[in-house]
Design a protein that fits this description.
Helix content: 25-40%
Shape: globular
CATH superfamily of the largest domain: NAD(P)-binding Rossmann-like Domain
Bound molecules: nicotinamide-adenine-dinucleotide, galactose-uridine-5'-diphosphate
Radius of gyration: 19 Å
Number of helices: 10
Structural class: alpha/beta
CATH class of the largest domain: Alpha Beta
Strand order of the largest sheet: 3-2-1-4-5-6-11
Strand content: 15-25%
CATH topology of the largest domain: Rossmann fold
Number of domains: 2
Distance between the termini: 33 Å
């Protein structure tokens, strides 16, 4: 059984990936500082190290004790607004700490790595759907912190033979189909959990940020990808690297966009509850459309989304919210 170290394995996407790895016959090992993650989101059967990715001694120890052969690296800060207020925090926590983490891994002989990147590396795209070859002009420190990591990998590959895949996720959403794992960010800023908290009556209304975008209904279009499909993309990426797929960046999305209004309308249908809307000003830094071009991951890694219709995303997220109205508390 191959042992895979998952940094940030107690976070939203990490916890779903840890479970999927175990289901597919891998042995996941989690390293997480719990700065934003939840211990309860990881099964007690999974080896769990409470620590920081920048603790090189700990990383080397884990690799040796657990016989780690590859790494999936989720650990990061990911609040766009916070990154604008505290760019130094993002360059330290994401870029600098990842550099230390990858150095320790390479020193320990681990050369296969899958990295959580983001559509925020593109900034405001000229072309939608966005191909991986599009220019990268991030418009916030969060996106830049991730782009710098991607770029560093090419040099680490040349110097030390690192094999890497950076998955540029579009909008991660949804939950385990039985609602047993889900999204519990504090503070929550993402549209879908906020819409469902409104359906639960925990919020009075959902603010729609901007109704004058150049989209069919005036609200922003996003490419929502189910967290289980994302989890699977990581495993295919690991297997791809092991069987000779080259290093590089891959978009992970569905290729279809839904507007904020369409998401809210579908959530009304799925939950059967009223969801009051408050039309609000634009949120700074939101591009009107972010939709992935997905041929590369489909062709080279054989990945196709299976749970990512907007109905399936909302149904699974609703199951999670009904079972865990206060998150993992
Ligand atoms: N959620 C999205 O829509 C989305 C979109 C694009 C990219 N991403 C990226 O995916 C990854 C996971 O996102 P998420 O939504 O699951 O976030 P999350 O905050 O739920 O998970 C991040 C996990 O990393 C841990 N962590 C953070 N810094 C750490 C450190 N220095 N050492 C050890 N552990 C640390 C946290 O405790 C948490 O468990 C992040 O890298 C994020 O930037 C997320
Ligand atoms: O209360 C809300 C919250 C969001 N939105 C809108 O809903 C859409 C989706 O917003 P999210 O905050 O859910 O997601 P983002 O598209 O802003 O962010 C995602 O995409 C980014 C890339 O731009 C990063 O990768 C980030 O990590 C990831 O969560 C946006 O148009 C946003 O303006 C609202 O109208 N009301």
């Amino acid at each position: 059984m191959e042992s895979i170290l998952v940094s940030g394995g107690a976070g939203y996407i990490g916890s779903h990936t840890v479970r999927t790895l175990a289901e597919q016959g891998y042995r996941p090992i989690v390293l997480d500082s719990l700065v934003t993650g939840h211990r309860q989101s990881v099964s007690l059967d999974v080896p769990f190290y409470h620590g920081d990715i920048a603790d090189s001694d700990l990383v080397r120890k884990i690799v040796e004790i657990e016989q780690v052969s590859a790494v999936i690296h989720f650990a990061a800060r990911s609040l766009v607004g916070e990154s604008v207020e505290k760019p130094d925090l993002y360059f330290e926590e994401n870029t600098a700490k990842t550099n230390r983490f990858v150095s320790a891994l390479l020193q320990s002989g681990v050369k296969r790595l899958i990295f959580s990147s983001t559509a925020a590396t593109y900034g405001i795209p000229d072309e939608v759907p966005i191909p991986e070859s599009a220019p990268t002009n991030p418009i916030n420190p969060y996106g830049l912190s991730k782009l710098m990591i991607e770029q560093s990998f090419a040099w680490l590959e040349k110097a030390y033979g690192l094999k890497w895949i950076a998955l540029r996720y579009f909008n991660a959403a949804g939950a385990a189909l039985d609602g047993s794992l889900g999204e519990d960010h504090i503070p929550e800023t993402h549209l879908i959990p906020l819409v469902l908290k409104t359906a639960l009556g925990q919020r009075e209304a959902i603010s729609v940020f901007g109704t004058d975008y150049s989209t069919p209904d005036g609200t922003c279009l996003r490419d929502y990808i189910h967290v289980l499909d994302l989890a699977n993309a990581h495993i295919l990426a690991l297997e791809g690297l092991a069987t000779g797929v080259g290093s590089g960046v891959y978009n992970v999305g569905t290729g279809s966009g839904y507007s904020v209004k369409e998401v809210i309308e579908t959530a009304r249908f799925v939950t059967g509850r009223p969801i009051p809307v408050l039309e609000s000003p634009r949120r700074p830094g939101d591009p009107d459309k972010l939709v992935a071009k997905v041929e590369k991951i489909q062709t080279l890694l054989g990945w196709t989304p299976e749970h990512s219709s907007i109905e399936q995303i909302l149904q699974s997220a609703w199951a999670w919210h009904l079972k865990h109205p206060n998150g993992y508390l």
